[in-house]
Amino acid sequence: MRPEILNPLFRPVTSLAGVGPKIGEAMGRLLVGGDAPEPPRVADLLLHIPVGLIDRRNQPGIALSPEGAIVTLEVRIDRHMPAPRGNKRVPYRVMAHDDTGEIALVFFRAEQNFLERTMPVGETRFVSGKVEWFNGRPQMVHPDHIVDREAFEQLPMVEPVYPMTAGLARKTLGRAMRGALDSLPDLPEWQDPTLMSRERWTGFKPTLETVHAPATPAELAPEGPAISRLAYDEFLANQLALMLTRANLRRATGRARIGDGRMRRAIIAALPFTLTGSQQAAIADIERDLASDERMLRLLQGDVGSGKTMVGLMAAATVIEAGSQAVLMAPTELLARQHAKTLQPLADAAGIRMAILTGREKGRERVDILAGLDDGSIDLVVGTHAVFQAGVEFRDLALAIVDEQHRFGVHQRLALSAKGAATDILVMTATPIPRTLVLTAFGDMDVSKLPDKPAGRQPIETRTVPLERLDQVVERIRAAIAEGAKAYWVCPLVEESEEVDAAAAEDRFVDLQRALGPVVGLVHGRMKAAEKDEAMQRFQRGETRILVATTVIEVGVDVPDATIMVIEHAERFGLAQLHQLRGRVGRGSKASTCLLLYKGPLGEVAHDRLAIMRDTEDGFRIAEEDLRLRGEGELLGTRQSGAPGFKIARFEHHAHLLEIARDDARLIVEKDPALNSPRGKALQLLLYLFGRDEAIKLLRAG
């Protein structure tokens, strides 16, 4: 039951004056994402923090206006210069002047009658906006305000600037924000008084009032008291949620799994290589976790080829020796079948009864597999998301291994772990996505790393190439395959899209086949499973030398003699995907190359992303940069990156606050796991306000 004091903040924004269904829908896109099932709440609006402000006290005059500065100018309108009829590319200009010089007010897709009424020639107007200097002349594109003297005297001299979305006017958002502030109750203080005094923080309500009605730019500074206070609230809500959830997971175990070692010894004896030192250390970490009466939640991170799957098999063998079952879940059927093919000989050598379960298993075969899992005659099942669907029951599922975990949502992993009694979880990835990195840094996951590279493995040379040089790339590929090389060519889409102007895989396949002949193959996610298998086998056998593909080959493709990876429109991929795709080459002893084809001009984030790929092959560093560029995603939800993760806290400004929040949350949960103290009751309000649903459910259940 939500505390009654919060009810005004949990009303939909459409309950505010001036916010109808259409504006509420626009606010939903802005505040909680376009796929939100319900309209945003008043609390969501209040936690939408300004990113800057317009200071109308800054009135330097035209000639003294700095480049890029938001200024207010008192100008006299001189003349209108409409665009030529029918030419929408040329803007409408209104020329104006003050005592210091002349400025052009620029409007695209302008309505001439409206502009002539708003800015009559010879009249004085106050215009506010960003000044840009073009060829030595100042201009202001689409001023924020154009008003006469009487209206200007009614404008606030300092106005906050919010992130916006299409269909929502800034004035409308401002009015709604003022209505939301009026409904904000006086909440009991949840922060520690000593910390409040030391950091010069005010209460939650005065802080929000300061942030949404700042008097100076300093009041919106990320490191200032107001934003820091809200950032700490957000950190503390996350830390409490993680600590309570983890404590609940730990309490839910009570089963130690200790094997006798016979299967593990048989697996090691059957291996054609020796386990690396980091593999042995990771196996020891997992065995300690499994022997404990606390539930395991461990991340195994290692680049492609570092031996994660073998560590996972050894973990599975441990619980199977103890009389239980294990499941290995892969994100694609391609990867699941590759795992099964790799593991089957070792499972046979160890006496492990293994099966594969994907959407392809039908009829009697599927019935037999489900019966084997239910009666315990199958020890290990390898599969896709099919393994956690309704109707799949285990006799005693002890270990869930989730491979390439960034392809699964949290709820999917929880659904899998719920198939057993306090199932231990091992997640494996070559590149931790931002949320995983945050969970790891926050102490929610234990970590084992496999930094060792297999003997003889060559580094991958990564280059960025503009798409204008596509013909040169094709000629380079022609020369390479003539010498026996194999290459992947990855395209983002299967068919043309009006929204994404990336080359389609099918079209690129036709183009390359026309240029290079029948050595070009094609695989994408819309092909039937048998067609994909055939295309992959032809590439593996060398009947085709170039495989044009979508990201279906991101994981699960093992062709050691492939040495070239071309990624078209690389600027459209995330770092984790780029790293995974690059990992398809460099798997043998020959030098390999990854070409990142991009369409310019690149934005700042895309430029940084491609630069990182050039600079490093280290998965953890790539994940750290991914976190910096994309955001951390929901810690307890299913979103993998970006909004709606931390809306207020910024690691570059508030990292020290995270450390304090982590320690504070741990002490609170250790002393008061039900949050029943007076401060605990206030902290429950904090959890509700910041939407940490998993922790709220625990408190309700407790």
From TrEMBL:
InterPro entries: DEAD/DEAH_box_helicase_dom (IPR011545), Helicase_ATP-bd (IPR014001), Helicase_C-like (IPR001650), NA-bd_OB-fold (IPR012340), P-loop_NTPase (IPR027417), RecG/Mfd (IPR047112), RecG_dom3_C (IPR045562). Its EC number is 3.6.4.12. It is an enzyme of class 3 (hydrolase). The keyword Transcription does not apply. Coiled coil: none annotated. SUPFAM superfamilies: Nucleic acid-binding proteins, P-loop containing nucleoside triphosphate hydrolases. CDD domains: DEXHc_RecG, RecG_wedge_OBF. SMART domains: DEXDc (SM00487), HELICc (SM00490). Residues 289-450 form the Helicase ATP-binding domain. Residues 469-628 form the Helicase C-terminal domain. Keywords: ATP-binding, DNA damage, DNA repair, DNA-binding, Helicase, Hydrolase, Nucleotide-binding. One of its GO terms (molecular function) is DNA helicase activity. NCBIfam families: PRK10917.1-2 (NF008164), PRK10917.2-2 (NF008168). This is ATP-dependent DNA helicase RecG. It comes from Kaistia terrae.
